[in-house]
Amino acid sequence: MATTRAADATTRATRSRHIPASDGRNLLEPTQVIWSPETRLQYRIEKPIGAGGFGQVYLATRRGRSATVPETVCIKASTRIEGWLREAYFGLLLDGHPRAVRVFDRFPLMRGDGQVLYYLVLEYACHGDLSAYLQADGRPWSETAARREIAGILEVLGRLHRGQLLHRDLTPMNVFVCEGRRLKLGDFGIVRQQSNRRGVTVDALNASMVPSDFLDRTGPKWQSRDDVYQVGQLLGMLVKGDATTRVRPHEVRGLDCSDQLKEIIYRCIGERRKRYESADEMIAALRTPPRRLASGVLRSLDGVHLAFTGILSRTRSEAITAATRAGAIVHSGPSVKTTVLVRGRPNPQQAAGKDGGVKLLEIKRLREKGHRITLLGEAQFWKLAAVKAASRPRASRR
């Protein structure tokens, strides 16, 4: 390397005492110029704009001509190589993806005191991260925009999932709002590869955006469905227009959106085993028009595995007795054994709208898995129960 280039690469900070990132002081200073030995471009530091667990982020201006690197960029500087290596790798892996924050340049530089700083030159998000944007804007997003933008984030996540990779840090601080309110995913510092679909041990997490199962660090391994939980939270935050607190399952019914979108959000953030198992499953749900939950036709209750939901015109105990006498096997809730669900009037407190009771959501999930389940209206149920009761002496069945 030529002497003049070595001087360019030695920034203003390299002539000062090393300052660890962890003490809250800046690694770089405004007007400082750093030089990339990879692209031979120079970058002038303008001001600090953020900091995270793996580095500090600065607004910067590119010096010199480039057909690929824009004039305004972000510089991420870190004293830690591990996160830098992962982010540099995923920048290459996802290069050109329209929903991933671009990584234009990556290089280490040694300071005058012998300390190495690791740099990433990133795409500048003109509206900042999603948390800051929602706090400043304060308005809910339309359902159309929320669906479209979350599906875009899921496209990036789907590429990771298909490669057996888990993001684990899908927070409003790692989703960025670019020109045209276009969301892009960034910060791949704690992505991990899973050797099988059992998941990975949780060794790092953002407590504000993880399922409660993981908060005491004794829960199950992190799986793709836990990434989906975080995306469900992001979707709910867009609908609310607020990223300051996570969405709780009991709050979903009050969101200002369609019942179908409420169902999607509830399934993401509800019971773990019932979540979408991958980003691709959630994309399909967002892009599939809602189907009418129509009642079916049944000739007999004899031998069926049956559960009840909703408000019945008679007591639940009467209904259970009638179903049993008609030859049905009654369960407290839907399961893989269920073949019939008897539906009463919707409960106003249902999780996700008229067709979004917890049991109805489970029936829909089981149907997606290929289980054949007949939905029966209450009137037809009582008719079938009466026919069976009239055809046999009451004592013939217990």
Q: How do you describe this structure in short?
A:
The protein is α+β, with helices and mostly antiparallel strands and 398 residues long. Helices cover 30% and strands 18% of the residues.
CATH-defined fold name of the largest domain: Transferase(Phosphotransferase), domain 1
The CATH class of the largest domain is identified as Mainly Alpha
State the secondary-structure class: alpha+beta
Strand order of the largest sheet: 1-2-3-4-6-5
Q: Give the helix proportion (percent range).
A: 25-40%
Largest pleated sheet: 6 strands, antiparallel
Mean pLDDT: 86
Q: What multimeric state do the chains show?
A: single chain
Radius of gyration: 28 Å
What general outline do the C-alpha atoms trace? Answer: elongated
Corresponding CATH superfamily of the largest domain: Transferase(Phosphotransferase) domain 1
Q: What's the architecture of the largest domain, going by CATH?
A: Orthogonal Bundle
